[in-house]
Amino acid sequence: MTSSPFRSKAKAVLVLEDGTRFTGQAFGATGQTLGEIVFQTGMTGYQETLTDPSYAGQIVLMTAPHIGNTGVNAEDEESARIWVAGYVVRDPSRIVSNHRSEGTLDAQLEKDGVVGIAGVDTRAITRHIRSAGAMKAGVFSGADADLSDGTQLDLVREGRDMRGLNLSAEVSTQHPYEIAATGERVGRVAVLDLGVKKSTLTYLSERGFDVVVLPQNVSADHVRSLKPDALFYSNGPGDPAASDHHVELLRDVLRDGTPYFGICFGNQLLGRALGFGTYKLPFGHRGINQPVLDKSTGRVEITSQNHGFAVDAPIEGVHESSQGFGRVEVSHYGLNDNVVEGLQCLDIPAFSVQYHPEAAAGPHDANYLFDRFRDMVIRLKADASTAASTDATTGDNN
């Protein structure tokens, strides 16, 4: 047990785009940071949230009041670094009491240069965001806390807007790499890294896929040269309307007949590839307790989610893709607000979900989707093998 990892530090202030201000203490690094403020409702898994690339560019407010009690460790990281732009908590733990801990959250935030604030009324801030919507914000601590109110507000309002923002290049790998299958080998899957999480790659490998992780700027010809048995688009940050290259790449590969599975950002990009639009949610879905209905089974899944944009499609009925991909239907939708949470193509081998079936700190209700993906690839390969045998037999008879 480690004593007193969090010490009362310098003054800090959280400034929202609409001029609302909250005063607390510096938590993590001191200085200033800007981003879109969003709230995350998970009671556990703060380290997985911090290291999820989908949170790049965002100041994350934790609604759970007590954060940091289990410390941090390398095993639970979802990527190689912390991605959040800033961090807002109410009551940082004064002790770390977990046998797996390798350090304190406060020290890790400071080491990675993440500016945070503690000791603020996170319930009041959450209620404000739920009423006014997600907005630009800034955390100012140390010397930056002494900037004038007007200067701080100007800096916040001059910050980046998530609308129209493409962040894929900031979070994607710069070089391809491979992970060998650990389960009975099924084939090779090409993963477009738009902010992929470690657990996603682990689950694909365990399902028998040799995983080839690709930078977000690869071409369709590069993907084809790998001769993958399937294509996977990962989660990631930013506005899907600003990812035209990824949409065109997906359309090209879908026209080749390559099976596809996408999660989160990958769901939004499949929607765009099929001809649907996307839109920004008022305050997004972020947490590990989001109820989703699977229309095919009538089963309600409790899911982990992190998205501020959604696909604009009717949740009932079968629709024709305006891009020539045949029939498509919404397969899942959120029970809180009827937001599209999944797409199923009926004439091509492609499906996607908006939530995170790989959730490391959340529920595992949706983990079966990786099995569904594996089974789809196995079935299609078997069909292709049967067709090839039939063609060969027919040729011999002729």
UniProtKB/TrEMBL annotation:
L-glutamine binds at residues 54, 236, 238, 265, 268, 306, 308-309. InterPro entries: Anth_synth/Amidotransfase, CarbamoylP_synth_ssu, CarbamoylP_synth_ssu_N, CarbP_synth_ssu_N_sf, Class_I_gatase-like, CPSase_GATase1, GATASE. Pathway: Amino-acid biosynthesis; L-arginine biosynthesis; carbamoyl phosphate from bicarbonate: step 1/1; Pyrimidine metabolism; UMP biosynthesis via de novo pathway; (S)-dihydroorotate from bicarbonate: step 1/3. It catalyses: L-glutamine + H2O = L-glutamate + NH4(+); hydrogencarbonate + L-glutamine + 2 ATP + H2O = carbamoyl phosphate + L-glutamate + 2 ADP + phosphate + 2 H(+). Residues 1-188 are annotated as: CPSase. Its EC number is 6.3.5.5. The active site is at residues 264, 356, 358. CDD domains: GATase1_CPSase. Residues 10-140 form the Carbamoyl-phosphate synthase small subunit N-terminal domain. The keyword Transmembrane helix does not apply. Pfam families: CPSase_sm_chain (PF00988), GATase (PF00117). It comes from the Bacteria. One of its GO terms (molecular function) is ATP binding. GO terms for biological process: 'de novo' pyrimidine nucleobase biosynthetic process; 'de novo' UMP biosynthetic process; glutamine metabolic process; L-arginine biosynthetic process. PROSITE patterns: GATASE_TYPE_1. SUPFAM superfamilies: Carbamoyl phosphate synthetase, small subunit N-terminal domain (SSF52021), Class I glutamine amidotransferase-like (SSF52317). It is an enzyme of class 6 (ligase). Keywords: Amino-acid biosynthesis, Arginine biosynthesis, ATP-binding, Glutamine amidotransferase, Ligase, Nucleotide-binding, Pyrimidine biosynthesis. Small subunit of the glutamine-dependent carbamoyl phosphate synthetase (CPSase). CPSase catalyzes the formation of carbamoyl phosphate from the ammonia moiety of glutamine, carbonate, and phosphate donated by ATP, constituting the first step of 2 biosynthetic pathways, one leading to arginine and/or urea and the other to pyrimidine nucleotides. The small subunit (glutamine amidotransferase) binds and cleaves glutamine to supply the large subunit with the substrate ammonia. Composed of two chains; the small (or glutamine) chain promotes the hydrolysis of glutamine to ammonia, which is used by the large (or ammonia) chain to synthesize carbamoyl phosphate. Tetramer of heterodimers (alpha,beta)4. Belongs to the CarA family. This is Carbamoyl phosphate synthase small chain. It comes from Okibacterium fritillariae. The lineage of its organism: Bacteria, Bacillati, Actinomycetota, Actinomycetes, Micrococcales. The gene is carA.
